[in-house]
Amino acid sequence: MSNVSIRNLEIRLGNNTIIEKLNLDVQEGEFVVLLGPSGCGKSTLLHSIAGLIDVTDGSIEIGGKDMTWADPKDRQIGLVFQSYALYPTMNVERNMSFGLRINGTPKPEIERRVKRAAEILHLEPLLKRKPAQLSGGQRQRVAIGRAIVREADVFLFDEPLSNLDAKLRTELRRELKQLHKTLRSTMIYVTHDQVEAMTLASRIAVMRGGVIQQIGAPSEVYAKPANVFVAGFLGSPGINFLEGTLERGANGVEFRSGEIVIDASRYAFISAPVFGKPVVAGVRPEDLHIGTGEAKQRGTVSLVEPMGNHRVVWLDYAGKALASIAGDTGVAELDASLGFTIDPQHMSLFDEASGQRL
């Protein structure tokens, strides 16, 4: 188990800068998820840690040792790719032990490691099968097992669940969380799936354009996004954005957007609020409550999405679509006029020009 320390990392491919002056510290035993849209540089960052991509500038330390220019085999990492990359002619046992056999690991030690990995991943009944006889989820378990048998200091996962169907993704996500609990190893995981990030991570690093926008515990990043991009990227359905201004109100500070007035007197401003300043308010769907008869604001139900134990109700308010999470009871018929209120407790405010949190 080792920490990973990245300092002023730059990666350029031709004239394109993929990673720019990036700093990241991953502590021993952490599960850090690199989250972001396609093309944001998260896989490039992971591959540079693995030694598969040369860096342009900066340094990468693993376990306190400079590994910036070390060969991948010398970095004590275990890497799991999006594709399973299994040898079709070898059975599960030989696929998992292939790297150890190439390195000349003694046979008793190979057997011990394969047996342990098979027990952890529930692969014992499958050890003699070939990849063609396995399901997608089983193949990915074998790929993970191949990394585990290395007994690496750091495990790297490059979108390992993206090729699986929804049910298998849920099952393997739970198994990966249990795997981290069992091994207590340092893990760095790349995904564009926010559900994976929120459920797996000790900390999430949200990336955009080769730059880390925010890093923190999942609950912190969700509740207090650092900017408009982070707020909009996390959450399903997405956060509601309202453009307006900060005004002086009876209780102190108010946010006004047309007829909508939200008390911001208890908002934890980073710096003193400027009245009249154009701002954007971010309101999570669970904080927009519908069906309140005495509400001043009313919207027209444009869409209802049943989700089992709850529903997502979309309101048309002055030409703007607003999402609300409601229980599976209650009335929300299409084209009905419903009142709504906004809970100010979890609201986020951003500067309209810079997009940064206020």
Q: How are the elements arranged and paired?
A:
Layout: E1 4-13, E2 16-26, E3 31-35, H1 42-50, E4 57-62, E5 65-66, E6 77-80, H2 92-102, H3 107-120, H4 136-148, E7 154-158, H5 166-183, E8 186-191, H6 194-200, E9 203-208, E10 211-216, H7 218-223, H8 228-233, E11 240-249, E12 252-257, E13 260-263, E14 278-283, E15 288-290, E16 297-306, E17 310-317, E18 320-327, E19 337-342, E20 348-351
Parallel strand pairs: 3-8, 3-9, 6-7, 7-8
Antiparallel strand pairs: 1-2, 1-4, 4-5, 9-10, 11-12, 11-14, 12-13, 14-20, 15-19, 16-17, 16-19, 17-18
Helix pairs in contact: 2-3, 2-4, 3-4
Domain ABC transporter: 4-234
Pfam family, one: ABC_tran
Protein name: sn-glycerol-3-phosphate import ATP-binding protein UgpC
Explained architecture:
This protein is α+β, with helices and mostly antiparallel strands. It has two domains: about 230 residues, P-loop containing nucleotide triphosphate hydrolases (Rossmann fold, 3-Layer(aba) Sandwich), CATH 3.40.50.300; about 110 residues, OB fold (Dihydrolipoamide Acetyltransferase, E2P), CATH 2.40.50. Helix content is about 25%, strand content about 35%. The protein has eight helices and 20 strands. The strands form four sheets. Strands 6-7-8-3-9-10 form a six-stranded mixed beta sheet, sandwiched between helices. Strand 12 and strand 13 form a beta hairpin. Helix 2 crosses helix 3, helix 2 runs parallel beside helix 4 and helix 3 packs across helix 4. The radius of gyration is 24 Å and the shape is globular. The chain starts with a strand and ends in a 7-residue tail after the last strand. The mean pLDDT is about 90. GO terms for molecular function: ABC-type transporter activity; ATP binding; ATP hydrolysis activity. One of its GO terms (cellular component) is ATP-binding cassette (ABC) transporter complex, substrate-binding subunit-containing.
